[in-house]
Structure formats: C-alpha cells, structure tokens
Design brief:
The protein is of the alpha/beta class. The protein has helices spanning 10-13, 19-31, 49-56, 68-81, 117-127, 144-151, 207-216, and strands at residues 38-43, 59-65, 86-89, 101-106, 131-142, 155-159, 163-171, 177-187, 193-203, 219-226, 239-246. Strand 1, helix 3 and strand 2 form a beta-alpha-beta unit. Helix 2 packs across helix 3 and helix 5 (117-127) packs parallel to helix 7.
Length: 248
C-alpha cells in the first residue's frame, strides 16, 4: 500500500485528530523515563503532523514512512513551519538509520498495518538495532475489540469541504483482520469531483503476540495503558498504548 492518492487528502480527513494533545501525551510518557530531548524516530510518520510537534518541543526528529507521497506532504509541511526534520522513505520492518536514537514513537495504529506476526517480530527485531540501551519506544495499536465491535463490517461516511469519503470495512473470518476500502471524491478547481480508491487491511494483534514480539527482540514492556490515560486497557478499550524499553 503506497497511499499515493490518499496522501493529498489525508490531513483534511484527519482534521479531528488532535496532534498537539497526542504529542503532549506521548512526551509526558517519555519524560517519565527522563527523555525530554535528543534524537527521536517518528516511525510511519505519514504527513508529519506529529513529527512537527516533537520538533517544536526540542527533539531532533527523524521521520520514516513507506509512502513517498506522504513524505512529500511532510517535507512541505516542515519547510513551511521552519522545522529541520530528516524524512526517510522506509518500511517499518526495514528501518535503517545512521545510528541510534533515544526514543521511537509509532502512532495512529500504524503497527496494525503490518501484514503478519512474522512482520511484527521482524519490525521489533530491526528497531532494537537503532535505539540506545535503555531507550524507550511508545506505540499504539487498535485493539481486537475495536476491530470486532467498532470497525467490523461497518461503513462510515466523511463529508469534508473538498473531499467526500466512503469507508467500507470487511471483518475477516479470523476475527482480527479488517479489510478497508476507501472511495474518495475530491473537488478540483473547477468544482468537479474526481474519484479514486485505496484498499488495504489492518490486523489487530493480541497482547500476547505483541508482548512476545517485543520480548523476543530484546525489549521489555514497562507499561500498557488506554489512550490518553495512565490506566491499563480494559475490555472495551479501542486504542491501547505500549511503552517498551530496550533491555539488551
């Protein structure tokens, strides 16, 4: 999945995402482990909205994403904001940096886009090579509950100023994989709508699968919490956060 067309309308469709609040929440977690500056990797950074927030707050940010089009949007956004951020086109499981970072952040269910447990394992094993000893990674995932009860086989419609989007889901028989089909109708400068489609899937990995992948790679889970909370995820939590530390 390249998000080639999606990149141009991504920010408009995610206008309700409070990136400032999300960045402050993540930075508060990092501060608990005395990480308030230094090199930070924003993994699967998309159009760079979170990268900008981290950069504005004193971090030296590297943003990686598999989509060149997303990164083009991110680079333009950083240039306009006067923020110096290095953006690299890389898949999560193929991360390759010039050295190590103090912290890694992966937000907005990007981990769910990995295609299998094998890719999940490979991703953490790869990331372990590029984070300092004792370094912290904070990432979130859509839960099995969200895939089964919220996304499921449901359809959502978004009607924004310049784009109309129909989001159709298909819950696979395994109960954790959701096929997602997005139909976009984008208004051009002649007030006409052009249609394009993006299709992909997300997998809700279980806590056991995530914990095994983390520990097998040499990390330790030091905290699990519900979104924007310090409390542990509950049965109906839709997005869970993991805080992991590189142990060896």
């Amino acid at each position: 999945m390249s998000y080639s067309s999606f990149a141009s309308v991504y920010d408009e469709l995610t206008i309700n995402v409070d990136y400032k609040r999300r960045a402050e929440y993540i930075m508060s977690i990092l501060a608990d482990y005395d990480i308030k500056d230094g090199l930070l990797l924003d993994l699967a950074c998309g159009t760079g909205s979170l990268s900008l927030e981290f950069s504005k707050n004193g971090f030296e940010v590297i943003g990686t994403d598999a989509s060149p089009d997303m990164l083009m949007e991110a680079q333009n956004k950083a240039a306009e904001a006067g923020e110096n951020i290095l953006f690299l086109c890389q898949r999560m499981e193929e991360t390759d940096l010039y050295g190590t970072v103090r912290a890694i952040v992966c937000s907005l269910d990007s981990i769910n886009h990995l295609s299998s447990v094998n890719e999940l394992n490979k991703t953490f094993s790869t990331l372990k090579n590029f984070i300092d000893d004792g370094g912290i990674m904070v990432f979130d995932v859509n839960t099995v509950y969200k895939h089964q009860k919220i996304l499921g086989n449901n359809t959502f419609v978004y009607n924004e100023k310049n784009v109309f989007c129909v989001w159709q889901n298909n819950l696979y028989d395994d109960g954790v994989t959701v096929g997602i089909n997005l139909d976009f109708f984008v208004k051009d400068d002649k007030n006409k709508y052009n249609r394009f489609t993006e299709s992909f899937k997300e997998i809700a990995f279980t806590d056991a699968e995530i914990t095994n992948a983390v520990e097998n790679a040499g990390f330790k889970v030091v905290k699990r919490c519900a979104e924007f909370s310090c409390s542990a995820p509950e049965e109906d939590t839709q997005r869970a956060y993991y805080v992991i530390r590189r142990e060896y």
